[in-house]
Design a protein that fits this description.
The protein is mostly helical and 286 residues long. It has one domain (56-278): MetI-like (MetI-like fold), CATH 1.10.3720.10. The protein contains 15 helices and no strands. Helix 4 (67-96) runs antiparallel to helix 11, helix 11 packs across helix 15 (268-278) and helix 13 packs antiparallel against helix 14 (243-265). It is globular, with a radius of gyration of 24 Å.
Length: 286
């Protein structure tokens, strides 16, 4: 006799496998197309396995001289944005946990206010211009470097840490900055790793801000350069007639997606042990 628990487990596993399949299929399809020959791509015969193994799409992408400079710029932006974002987020979140802080309610309301209202693109651009941050790497790193949503999540996580630990730190002579550095942050590795990953992924995928605030090609991040590669090959498809015109731009589009996606995916295994705990931050308050 089949138990109800076994039926539920079977349905649960089947549902999760289905979600995994529909999630992985587009990714595997793009990999297959990017490594396939032109004719099968044009005929729409490529599924999950490459047909007529061909790396010409990747050759086309990596022939761009600015690609490796863009990789370097992107790494600088990602590291800078993540470190500054985590620093400000941690300090701000810890300050908001102190209800005895002067003007605590005012600062809390002001932080939440920015989640719903903003100055808009033109006022932001004018502010960046006044601060001489246009066409600078600091401009890309500093603009929107803190997410209010992540700050509130971090505040909730910090609030769940027992107050007795902070009191013991004060007895040992620690000030607020010492308590944050020596007690709170070491106990918040899961939250820091998770929010740091979110900051890094957001910066890695950022296109609009660098496109608006940067004018020098040597400062462009990866996403802007890849856009130029895709547009250049779309124009090539218009200029030429025949098999290459129909197939190569499609293969190059998928190859550019792989080039921009694989590096950031490789980061996940290194923080997986923290990520499982970190995704639950703010869900339960002790």
């Amino acid at each position: 006799m089949i138990k109800k628990g076994m039926i539920f487990t079977f349905l649960k596993v089947s549902f999760l496998l289905f979600i995994c399949a529909i999630t992985l299929y587009p990714f595997l399809h793009m990999i297959a197309v990017s490594f396939s020959a032109n004719l099968p791509v044009m005929q729409g015969k490529v599924g999950l396995i490459p047909i007529g193994f061909n790396i010409s799409a990747y050759k086309e992408v990596f022939q761009n001289k600015m690609l490796f400079t863009a990789y370097k710029n992107t790494i600088i932006y990602v590291v800078g944005r993540t470190l500054i974002g985590l620093l400000v987020t941690s300090c701000g979140a810890y300050a908001l946990t102190k209800k005895h802080m002067l003007f605590h309610r005012f600062f809390s309301l002001m932080v939440v206010f920015t989640m719903f209202f903003s100055g808009g693109m033109i006022p932001t651009y004018l502010v960046m211009q006044k601060l001489n941050l246009i066409d600078t790497r600091w401009g890309v790193i500093l603009i929107n470097c803190v997410s209010v949503w992540y700050l509130l999540l971090m505040r909730t996580f910090f609030s769940s840490i027992p107050k007795d630990l902070e009191d013991s730190g004060k007895i040992d002579g620690l000030q607020d900055i010492g308590i944050l550095w020596y007690i709170i942050l070491p106990l918040s590795k899961a939250a820091i790793a998770t929010i740091g990953l979110f900051y890094a992924v957001a910066m890695w995928n950022s296109f609009f801000n660098p496109f608006i605030y940067l004018n020098s090609p040597e400062k462009y991040p990866l996403q802007v350069i890849l856009r130029q590669i895709v547009i250049a090959n779309d124009m090539k498809a218009i200029e030429y007639a025949g098999e290459d015109a129909a197939a190569m731009p499609e293969s190059i589009k998928y190859a550019t997606i792989m080039v921009s996606t694989i590096p950031i995916i490789l980061v996940y295994p290194f923080i997986q042990k923290y990520f499982v705990k970190g995704v639950m931050i703010g869900s339960v308050k002790g």
